[in-house]
Every structure is written in C-alpha cells, then in structure tokens.
Amino acid sequence: MVEIFITILNMSITASIVALAVMFLRIPLKIAPKVFSYALWGVVLLRLILPFSIESALSLMPAARNMIPLDIVSPNNGVPFGEIPASATAAGYMPAALQVAESNPGAIAIAIAGYVWLLGFILLIVHALLGYINLRGRIRFATLIEGNIYEADNIQTPFVLGIIRPKIYFPTNLDPSKHDFILRHEQIHIQRRDYIIKPLAYIVFALHWFNPLMWVAYFLMSKDMEMSCDEAVLRETNEDIRRDYSMSLLGMSVKRVSLLSPLAFASGESNVKERISNVLRFRRAARRVTVISVIAVAVFLVGFSSDRVLVIDASHGAGGSSFSINGPICN
Length: 331
Known about the structure:
It is a single chain. The chain is of the alpha/beta class. It has one domain (2-83, 100-322). 55% of the residues lie in helices and 9% in strands. The chain is built from 10 helices and 9 strands. It has helices at 2-25, 34-49, 94-103, 105-138, 176-191, 194-207, 212-235, 242-255, 272-281, 287-305; strands spanning 55-56, 143-146, 149-152, 159-161, 167-171, 264-266, 307-308, 315-317, 320-322. It has a 5-stranded mixed β-sheet with strand order 2-3-5-4-6, with helices on one face. Strand 2 (143-146) and strand 3 (149-152) form a beta hairpin. Helix 2 (34-49) packs parallel to helix 10 (287-305) and helix 3 (94-103) crosses helix 4 (105-138). The relative contact order is 0.16.
C-alpha cells in the first residue's frame, strides 16, 4: 500500500507540472479553436495513469519522474515498512518494527495517508455509482423518439448516458426551437467518444483526489470539452446561428440541476455563462492561427509526455567515484 501511494504521489506531482503548463498555454490559445486546448489535457491524463517513465531527448519536463523515492520509508534493515511478516512476534522481530517507527516516524504518517487516500478514492467511486443508479431510475420510463434519442418527464436538461451504447435523453418540456442545436451538440460528444473520456477522466482524477490542482484541471478540461463541441456545431453551418445557439444554452442553464453522477454530462451543466460568451465571440479561425496552434500543441504533446533522458556521468579517480542522474553531481 505504501509503495502504491508513493507512486500515486509521484504521478500527481509530475501531472501537476504538466497541468500548470496547460493552464499557461491555454492563455495564448484563447484565439484558437477550443479543440486544441482540450487536446492538451490528454497529456495530464497520461501523466496521471502511467507509473513508468518514457524518456526522450525532446522532453520539456523540468523535474525528474520520481521526486519521492520509493524506499523513503524503508528501515535500516532493508525491510520496507508495512511488510513485516505476521510471524514477527513469535520470531522476536517486533522490537525491530518498533525501532523502525521510532527512527522513521514519517513511515507511519505515509502509511496512514495511504489508507486515507484509498478510502477517499473508494468513497468517490461509490458516490459516482450511486448517482448513476439514481439517474438510471429517473429515466426508467423514458420514451424512444428515434435511433438513440429518448424523452423523459422527470429530467430538466438534455444529457448523454451510457458507455457501450450511449443514448441521448431530452426533457419532454424542451422548447422545440432548441432541440436541433442541442441534439447536434450531444451527437458530436458521441462521435468524439466524450461519453467514454469523461467518466474515465473522473476515475483518474479521483485517484488523485487529494491534489486540489487536479480538480481544477478536471473542471477546465470539462469546460474545454463543452466549448469545443459548441464550436463544432457553429462551424457546421454557413448561417450565423450564434444568437439562437446562445439562447438555447441560456434556456437550459435556467433549468439545470445536478445529475448526481459524473458518468453522465449535460449540455446545460458546465459553466454556461462562459460558454455563451465564447459562442458570441466565435469566429472561424484563420489558417495561420490553426497552423501555429497545431505546431504548439504538437510540441507540447511531445515535450511533456516524456521525461528527460537519464544521464549518468561516472568518473573514477584517486578520490573515489562520482555520478550524475538528471541533476548535480553527487560524490
């Protein structure tokens, strides 16, 4: 458990560095289509789930992968904390274990923190599952309209639900003038597999629930996801539908309610005010802006998906030997 928790901590630290870099790059990318900002969060997710290092000479990461060594809680006798055998008492080993606790009190703190982390993760997953079950009950009597589109009485905002066969659910009292825009928005979510990406992202971020920066990243990723879908709808038509589309979002924001589960996401659920502002400012990006954005995102993906190449510089002399691993020389 201790080693797993330390591995999670290391992944969370490196992901935090990448998340801060994404937040910084999103500023100049404001003039670019939001799909580019959305793509950047894929590197953060990669950092949060890969426990091993991918080395590259093109890496832009400023820090080493494992900033917290796995043996930080190992006692002097080489037996990792928490791995003392059950027969320790009979073998007279327990005094050594107590000595470990006295010589390395941080080991106890990390072990306790590891179990707190596991409990928090379990609670978040249970919360998501209970919300999903509750939501399934509310749409139990939904009426099929056509294809994968359903209508239900006891919901107040459209949303997509399902992993294997995603379905679109509309409230029965939805204004028909808003139907086409929102339907296309949800269909784009399905085409891009957002109905898979967002639940998986929630699970990954839940693994790092103790890191507040990761929840900020999850919020911003969700916002970029929705805005990029809004822009995709606007780009598909030659007419100026910004006002009508904005009114659709505004109407849903008045009715929006919590879906109680991150396994479903609604068109009117994510920062509607900022999305309306983005829709009203929408302009088709110039080719030069698109090309620069593609290059910037490509450099970011390559540079922050990998770690610096491990460099070992060993020298032998009368005074002994020294080596350097991604840092200053140690004697």
